[in-house]
Structures are given as C-alpha cells and as structure tokens.
Amino acid sequence: MTDRIVLAYSGGLDTSVAIGWIAEETGAEVVAVAVDVGQGGESLDTVRQRALDCGAVEAYVADARDEFAEQYCMPTLKANALYMDAYPLVSAISRPVITKHLVAAAQQFGATTVAHGCTGKGNDQVRFEVGIQTLGPELKCIAPVRDLALTRDKAIEYATANNLPIETTKKNPFSIDQNVWGRAVETGFLEDIWNGPTKDVYDYTEDPAFPPAADIVTISFEEGIPVALDGKPVTPLQAIEELNQRAGAQGVGRIDIVEDRLVGIKSREIYEAPGAMALIAAHQELENVTLEREQARFKKTLGQRWTELVYDGQWFSPLKKSLDTFINDTQRYVSGEIRLELHGGRATVQGRKSTTGLYDFNLATYDTGDAFDQSSARGFIDIFGLSSKVASERDQRLHGTPDFSAVNSLDS
Ligand code: ARG
Fold this sequence. Notes:
The chain has helices at 13-26, 44-53, 65-78, 90-109, 124-135, 144-147, 152-161, 236-249, 274-290, 293-311, 318-330, 361-364, 375-384, 386-399, 404-411; strands at residues 4-8, 29-36, 58-63, 113-115, 140-142, 175-179, 182-186, 215-222, 225-229, 232-233, 254-260, 266-272, 336-343, 346-353.
C-alpha cells in the first residue's frame, strides 16, 4: 500500500504547492487537513476543493471553532496568559488544537507521517512536532519548507508550471497567522525594528487615534468563563467574536513587541487581539475582587510559567496539565460582572459586582460603619517588623549602623 502523509493545509500558496511537492519528493499520497479555528477568509468547502484540485487524495476539514474557544482560549483567559507581559498566545494555542485534528486524521486515513508548512526558524514547528510526538508517538513529521527545500520562489514556479488553482501574483509582504483569539503579523519591513507599523498591517482593529464614541460592555463571568455580554447569554466563541468586533472598532488590543522565540531568535511581532485583551482585562479585575491575596499572588507566578510552557509548545505536557488543575481550582469563585469601557485603544474597568467576591465594604470603608478594628494594627506591625528590627539591632551593635548593607555598597 502506498504510504500516506497528512498535511496541515491552510489553502494558501505554500501548502497548496506542498501537496504535489511532497508527493513527488516522497512518493506518498497526501491527505490535506484544514482546521477552522476562526481564521475567517475563504469557506472551508472552497479550501477543501482546492486541496483536491492540487492533488490531495483526500481532503478533510474540521470546524474546531467552539472547541478552540472552549478548550484553548478559555484556559488562556483563566491564566491571564500574556507572554512577555504582552502577547496573548494567539498562534501558540492554535497549534495544539490543529495537532489534535492532524493526529486524528492520520489515524483515520492510515497515514504514517504528518506534514506542516512551518519554516525551521520559528516556534510553530516545535509546537506541531512536540504535539504530534505526544499524541501520536508512532507518527513521523516532515516540514517541506524546512526539509524538502520548498522555497517561496520554487512554490510560485511550481504553482504556475502545474496550473494550480491558487493566486501566485498577490504579493503580501507579511507572514500572517490568525484565529478567533487574535492575529499575528511578521516579516517584511517590520524586520527593521525601528520601523513603525503602517495601516495595512492591521485587520482586526481600527485606528485607536480616531475612535467612535465609547462602548460600555458588561461581561458576566461564571467560574472564570464569560457567559453573558450586556445580559445576553453567550458561548465562549460568541463572547470572543462579539468583543473582537466591539473592542476592535475602538482599536483595543494592538501589540508591537520584540519577542524571545524558543529557538533563540528575537523577532519583531505585531499582534491584534481585541476580544482577548478586553476579556483578560475584565477577568483579571474580577480575580482581584474574588481571589484571596496569597492565592492571587501565587497564581500570577504560576500563570506566567503556564504561559511560557504553552508558548514553548508544551501544551500536552504533564506540568502544563498539573498547572491547569491549580488554575481551575482558583476559578471556583471567579463569578460576577465587570463593566468595561472600550474606547480609543483601551479597555478600562469601570465597575465590578460579585456575590462570591471578597471585597467587604464594611472592612474597606473610611466612613461610619467601619468594621475594621484599627487598634489591632499596632500589634500586627510590631510583630511583622520584628525580625528586621532584631537584625538591625545586631548591625548597630557590630558596625555602628542600623543599615549595614548601605555601608557595604559604599565600600565597593
Ligand atoms: N511569534 C508568534 C508565536 O510564536 C506568532 C507566530 C505566527 N506565525 C506566523 N506565521 N506569522 O506564537
């Protein structure tokens, strides 16, 4: 029986050419798999037909939008995941869900190998292949751009020579990856990190410099998950989609950073994630109201580790799963409402409401009705500062100063 290779198919030039290219280079049959994670653009039927027209023996399309929103975006929201304090993991979380469908398709169609269109310089190759190794240890991986010398020029030449039904003339200078959680843009003139992004870089967001009137949205959460917008029940997918529109119209969620890739390269990235950034702002503030102080502090550290693991392609790793258990446990009381103002590039919290929160008006108030016993503060402070005070007395005794570290730094 002829060997079969499952190819992660986007419908674009590179992966369309890859179908025939892989077949010629390896002698295998190619099964194209396209996964809808809310990237928009062409219909999946069109994409499926193109794969067949380009020579795929089978073409399989999966609508993974709800799955992606519920099982990938929501955990990212619960973790308030921002890699390098900025990037909400847009591409990093789509790779594991795509991988799941690739591995399932490989098993269904009897393939021995999975192929993807990544280069050898990025994070995505790692995310795909670590995921594939984990979910389908029997499968091999191949990347035609990296392993079979499929360059951009050769792709255009091949598509023209073979009359493939794919646009070869449209010159987009950028490498773009998008899904419902956001959009990533790199390469082209953005590689000069002094260059500012031009208008044509953006698609999910309007220019925040010229915003329409402010948009006030109330987001209801249950256990860390958005369940209603302005009182209207929504699924996670609907919540993200609606906020992409509303926050996007206000230019919320534009990000421009130099980022540390896992492979050691620093790269310039532009992201747009209006819905994700609005949701994270709201969720984070609801946690401020509902999480106990030490739990909140620890969750921040742990959330950062979770974020780095996911960025680094460790979605299916044991540590990531263990951290999920902790994070889910913290979400038990993260329920209530956040009122957000979306305006001019910013998502600003204006109001909070929670019946499971820890904010106690009677403890917090400076007005009459104060339930906090201020006389306890003195004794608390005496004991809280005691160990430093004892150490300082020693320094005074031995060095004639209560702050020996200051003397030390003067000496050097
Ligand atoms: N640098 C980002 C990441 O590693 C985005 C990669 C997006 N891929 C692309 N082809 N533009 O998650």
